[in-house]
Write a structure and sequence with these properties.
Subunit structure: The Tol-Pal system is composed of five core proteins: the inner membrane proteins TolA, TolQ and TolR, the periplasmic protein TolB and the outer membrane protein Pal. They form a network linking the inner and outer membranes and the peptidoglycan layer.
Function: Part of the Tol-Pal system, which plays a role in outer membrane invagination during cell division and is important for maintaining outer membrane integrity.
Number of strands: 30
Main location: periplasm
Helix content: 10-25%
Protein name: Tol-Pal system protein TolB
Radius of gyration: 23 Å
Subcellular location: Periplasm
Number of helices: 4
Length: 431
């Protein structure tokens, strides 16, 4: 299960010389903060060499799904068989309105895969990036994701999110007899695998931001429990026994604590456990139902939902349980809050008017925006760059599916996983 390390090296001096020889001009960029971004036309011809076409296809799919790029079909290309050591024939790419061009070459030598690629600004005729990745041949998809992240970051100024994975609950069977299995896949739906055998129900998996570890809860006839699962060793471990039902575990940003809820006698409160000492502390003691704790990126605060005010709303407290204050005041029911990895927004599920929405608001409760509307949308999770959310959507009578939406609400589409799934959790960028 361990992912193999990739090596990244800067481009050769030869290519730096090519870049310096081109005329200075304004470079292309995408402003992701504009609400009306027009996708950038980009050409991504098949890379030369073994797996070259596959790598270009993965890059094309990643950039297209972001909604910020409009890959141009290969049938439109005039120049063929590009060489990474030579400048492209820019007039040929201007003729098909390509604003940017990605080309590359794959070689395999001594059992190692080497991928060189270039990113070109077609209209200024400048090289924007020249990088080389090396890895094992079977790791070619990760190399494609790394290149996608590099192109995304160079043209948007923000980190990419393609070299990541999604852990989720795979669901099969009818609504009343559904099998729920812990599953994991690449963010583009590739390489799905299953971490439990479906003999018991699993719920609410979440990634650690600092290790190859997942926390999730199980529901069996004898009760509920919270587990840690190490992806590297496949070792599963209970975090302890608690009287009552435990649920909604969430790692702290440093991976050293897990916040969770315990329900006893119809009341639910939030606890936090130090994973090193295995000691836990109770953070809330209100008669209302307190659940769905999510840490801020610096670990100093926790957002959660509570019905202590009469209906489920969002609250923030310090990580020691002090300083509780309400941040949502709209009509309807606010649940499943999750703090953005970059700290600027809190995503949530909102139920109002017979419909469900995925929304975001600032941590002070301002600037609330509803990004989706559906029969049942729930369980948002953030991509590591804080620009895209994945969530589960269910239609009347249909199984739950995974969808994505960007933080503006403009780019909404099904996730590229063909099966039924719910409760997704996005990993941080892989090392």
């Amino acid at each position: 299960m361990r992912l193999k390390a990739l090596c990244l090296a800067l481009a050769s001096l030869l290519l730096a010389t090519v870049s310096l020889a081109t005329p200075a001009a304004a470079q292309i960029e995408i402003n992701v903060n504009k609400g009306d971004v027009q996708p950038l036309p980009i050409a991504i011809p098949a890379f030369g060499g073994t797996r070259g076409a596959d790598i270009a296809q993965v890059i094309t799919g990643n950039l297209e799904r972001s909604g910020l790029f409009a890959p141009i079909g290969q049938q439109a290309y005039i120049e063929k068989n590009l060489n990474v050591a030579v400048q492209p024939r820019f007039p040929d790419w201007k003729a098909i309105n390509a604003q940017a061009l990605v080309n590359g070459q794959v070689t395999v030598e001594g059992g190692r895969l080497q991928v060189d690629f270039r990113l070109w600004d077609v209209y200024s005729e400048q090289q924007l990036l020249g990088l080389q990745f090396t890895s094992t041949p079977e790791n070619w998809r990760r190399v494609a994701h790394k290149i996608s992240d590099a192109v995304y970051e160079r043209l948007t100024g923000e980190k990419g999110y393609f070299d990541t994975r999604i852990v989720f609950v795979s669901e099969t069977g009818g609504r009343l007899n559904r099998t729920k299995t812990l599953a994991i896949m690449d963010q583009d739906g590739a390489n799905p695998s299953y971490l439990t055998d479906g003999s018991y129900i699993v719920m609410s998996p979440r990634f650690s931001a600092t290790s190859q570890e997942i926390t999730y809860m199980t529901l069996r006839p004898e009760g509920s429990a919270i587990y840690l699962f190490n992806l590297e060793t496949a070792r599963r471990e209970s975090i302890g026994q608690f009287p009552g039902m435990v649920y909604a575990p969430r790692f702290s940003p440093d991976g050293g604590r897990v916040a969770f809820s315990v329900e006893r006698g119809g009341n639910s409160d939030i606890y936090v456990m130090n994973l090193k000492s295995r000691t836990s502390a109770r953070l809330t003691s209100d008669p209302g139902i307190d659940t769905s704790a999510s840490f801020s990126p610096d670990g100093t605060k926790i957002v959660f939902n509570s019905d202590r005010g009469g209906s489920p709303q969002l609250y923030i407290m310090n990580s020691d349980g002090s300083g509780v204050r309400r941040i949502s005041y709209g009509s309807g029911r606010y649940t499943t809050p999750v703090w953005s990895p970059v700290g600027d927004f809190i995503a949530f599920t909102k139920q109002t008017g017979g419909e469900f929405h995925i929304g975001v608001m600032r941590p002070d409760g301002s600037d609330e925006r509803l990004l989706t509307t559906s029969y049942l949308d729930e369980s948002p999770t953030w991509a590591p760059n804080g620009r895209v959310l994945m969530f589960s959507r269910e239609t009347p009578g249909g199984p739950p599916r995974l969808w994505t939406v960007d933080v503006t609400g403009r780019i909404l589409r099904p996730a590229p996983y063909p099966g039924s799934g719910s409760d997704p959790a996005w990993s941080p960028l892989l090392n």
